[in-house]
Amino acid sequence: MRPPSSLSYEENLINGFNGMGVGNSSQFQMSQQQQQQIPPHVDRIMNPGNMGPGNGSNFFQTMGQNRSSDDSFRYTTDSHNAQQLPIAPLQPLQYHLYTPPLPHVSNMPAHHRAIHHFFMEDNLRETLQRQSEASRQILDPNTPEAQSLPSEIHIYHSLYPLDDKPDRHSKVFGFPTSVYKAISSMDGKPYVLRRIEGFRLLSETAMTSIEGWRRIKHAGVVSVREAFTTKAFGDNSLVFVYDYFPLSTTLSAMYFVPLRAGAKPGVPEKSLWSYIIQISSAIKTLHSSGLAARILEPSKLLVTGKNRVRLNCCGIFDMINYDGGKNVIQFQQDDLVNFGRLIVALACGSLAAVHNLPKSLEYISRQYTPDVKNVILLLLSKRSNYKSIDEVLNMIMPKILQEANSAYSYNDLLESELAKETENGRVVRLLCKLGFINERPEFDMDPAWSETGDRYLLKLFRDYVFHQVDELGNPVVDVGHVLQCLNKLDAGVDERIMLMSRDEQSCLIVSYKELKQCIESSFSMLSRETNP
Ligand SMILES: Nc1ncnc2c1ncn2[C@@H]1O[C@H](COP(=O)(O)OP(=O)(O)OP(=O)(O)O)[C@@H](O)[C@H]1O
After folding, report:
1. Do strands 308-311 and 177-184 pair parallel, antiparallel, or not at all (unpaired)?
2. Is the pTM of this model over 0.80?
3. Chain centroid to CA 187: how far?
4. How many domains does the chain divide into?
5. Where are the alpha helices (DSSP H) in 114-242?
6. Binding site membership: which residues?
7. Are residues 382 and 443 both part of a single domain?
8. Which residues lie within the region annotated Knob domain (predicted)?
9. Which segments are annotated as binding site for ATP?
C-alpha cells in the first residue's frame, strides 16, 4: 500500500483544519464483498495507480530529518536507517537518546514543528525517568547484601540501602544508623526507613513524641510517617519512616566535598537565599507547632530537586533523648543559632568556618550582599531575651517575594510542560479506543462487526495511520504522521482522506469527521456489549 497524498499538518493548523479532498481517479470495479463493506456515507474512487506518496508534507520531511529515538518510538522516514535501528526497547534506558533538536533543524519555519515540540522538555523527562527508575531499584536477592537484610519489617519489604558510606556511625545521632528505601505493603509506595542500630527504647511514652511530627505537613520538611522498634535485624533497632524522595542528596554531599580545581567555595547567592527562605519557613511551622527541628546541619538537609531543600530526620532526637517536651523553648533557640551556623558554613563552603567567625564574616561581606551577613548576625547574636524566627522572616521579606516570584514562574513552566502531556494523554485514549475496536477475535466473521461498515473503515484507517510504506515497499515509521492523523480524528475535521483496501483494489474517500462518528458508534456498541 502506498501513502495517499495528504495535506501537511502545519498547513491544516494554519487553515483551521479546513477540509481538503484527494486527487481524482478514474473508474474502477470493486468486488461485491468490498461493495458491502463500505458504509453508505463514504465516497468511492477507483484506480489506485494515481496515488503516489504524499508530496506536500514538509512536516514529514522535517520529522525525518529530526530523527530521534526513545524506548517506545522510532521516528524516521528513512527506510535505510529504519532497518538499521534496533526495534526492541533498549535496557537500561539510553538517556542520551533524548537529545534536543540540533541547531540545523531547530531553525525551522514558523509553521513547522520538531518532534520535541509534542513532548515534555528533555531534561525534565530524563529527571522524572531517572527518579522513577530509582524508586523501583531492588537488590539482587542472591547477593550477600540482600541476604543479610530481613525480607520484611513491620509492613515494609524490598529493602534497598541508600547510604553508600561505609562508616555507619552517624556523627549527628551518636549511634550507628542505616537508611533504606522500602516498599509499604499497605499502599505499595516507597518510603525511607532510618534505622538506629542497637538502640533500646526505655520508655514507652517516648514513642508518643512522634505524634506531633506526624501532623507536620510542610514543603520544607520530609514528612514523618511512623516509628517502631524491631528485632528483625537481629538487634534492638528503632526505625523511623519518612517520605522517600528519589535521587535526593544532602547539602553536605553537595557543598562540603573537595572542590574542583579553580572552583569557588560557597553556595551561589541566589541558591543561598532560596535555602534560607525554605528553611526559615520550615522552622516557622515547626516552632508554631510547639516543636524544634534539632537537626539543622548539612547532612540532614535533603536536596530533593533544583534548589529544593527539606529538613530530614525530624523527630529522632525527640525520641532518643526523650524529655517530654520540657526543653522545647531552649531547643527552638538552639535551632536559630544552628541555622546561623549553617548559613556561615554554606556561604564559606566549609563546616569549620564557624570556628573562626570574624574571618568568615569578612569573607561573606566580600562575596555576598550585606543582607546575608545581617541575617547571620541576627541569628548568632547573644541576647538576654528570646529570639523568634519571625524576626528573621521580617528581615528577609524582600527576598521572600523574589523567591515566590521564581517559584510561580517555575510553576508556570511546569504547567506548560504538563499541558503537552495532557495532549498526549488525549491521543493515548483515542488509541485505546481504536485498539478496543479493531479486529476483535470474538467478533471474527461476525457480519455485524469486523469486516463491515464502520469497523471496516476503522481497520483501513489503522492501516493508513500505521502501516504505510514508501515507494520501495519499506515501512514508513513516522510519529509525525500518526499524531497528525489522530489529532485530526479527535477534532473530527472535515478534511477527507483516501483509504485503500489491503488488496489495493479499491479506495474510499472519507472525512475525519465520519471516521470520528465510526469510532463513537463502534465504541458505544462495544460498551453496550460489555455492560449489557
Ligand atoms: N527521605 C529520603 N528520601 C530519599 N533519600 C534519602 C532520604 N533520606 C536520606 N536519603 C539518602 O540517604 C543518604 C544517607 O542519608 P544520611 O542522612 O544518613 O546522610 P549521611 O551523610 O550518611 O549522614 P550521617 O553522617 O548522619 O550518616 C542521603 O545521602 C540521601 O541520598
Report:
1. unpaired
2. no
3. 20
4. 2
5. 122-135, 144-147, 209-214
6. 194, 243-250, 299-300
7. no
8. 437-532
9. 194, 243-250, 299-300
For the domain that residue 517 is a member of, what is the CATH number?
A: 1.10.287.3700
Nearest protein Cα to ligand 1, atom 23: 299
The model's confidence at residue 425, banded by pLDDT at 50, 70 and 90, is confident
Residue at a domain's end among 327, 353, 387: 387
Per the structure, the complete domain to which residue 235 belongs is given by 144-387
In a domain, 19, yes or no: no
User: Ligand 1 pocket test: which of 299, 308, 313, 316 has the largest number of ligand atoms within 8 Å of its C-beta?
Assistant: 299
Q: Are residues 249 and 156 in the same domain?
A: yes
Parallel/antiparallel/unpaired status of strands 177-184 and 507-511 = unpaired
215 Cβ contact partners less than 8 Å away, ≥ 6 residues apart: 289
Top mutation candidate among 159, 164, 179, 213 for ligand 1, by most atoms within 8 Å of CB? 179
Residues 236 and 155 in one domain: yes
Is the same domain home to 165 and 273? yes
CA 340 – CA 352 distance, rounded (Å): 13
Which atom of ligand 1 sits closest to the CA of residue 249? 31
Both 314 and 194 in one domain: the answer is yes
- Point out the domain boundary residue: 387, 403, 422: 387
CA of 177 to the centre of ligand 1 (A): 10
Pair 340, 242 in one domain: yes
Judge whether 490 lies within some domain.
yes
Do 368 and 503 lie in one domain? The reply is no
Q: Residue type for 132, please?
A: S
204 CA distance to ligand 1 middle (Å): 27
> How many residues make up the chain in this entry?
532
From the CA of 310, how far away is ligand 1's center (Å)? Answer: 12
- 38 belongs to a structural domain: no
The answer as to whether 467 is a domain residue is yes
- CATH for 284: 1.10.510.10
> What is the Å distance from ligand 1's center to 255 Cα?
15
Closest C-alpha residue for ligand 1 atom 15: 163
Beta strand 177-184 pairing with 190-196: antiparallel
Let me know whether 371 and 283 are in one domain.
yes
Note whether 5 and 22 are within 8 A (CB): yes
**CA nearest neighbour of 56 among 106, 26, 22:** 22
Pocket of ligand 1 (CB under 6 A): 162-163, 165, 170-172, 177, 179, 192, 222, 242-245, 248-250, 252-253, 299-300, 302, 312
Assigned C-alpha cell, 24: 481524482
By alpha-carbon position, which residue is closest to atom 1 of ligand 1? 244
Q: Are 27 and 47 in contact (CB under 8 A)?
A: yes
- For position 531, what pLDDT does the model report? 61
pLDDT (tens digit, 9 = 90+) per residue, 243-266?
999 999 999 999 998 888 888 889
- Compute the average pLDDT of residues 288-294: 97
Tell me, in angstroms, the distance from the centre of ligand 1 to residue 213's CA. Answer: 19
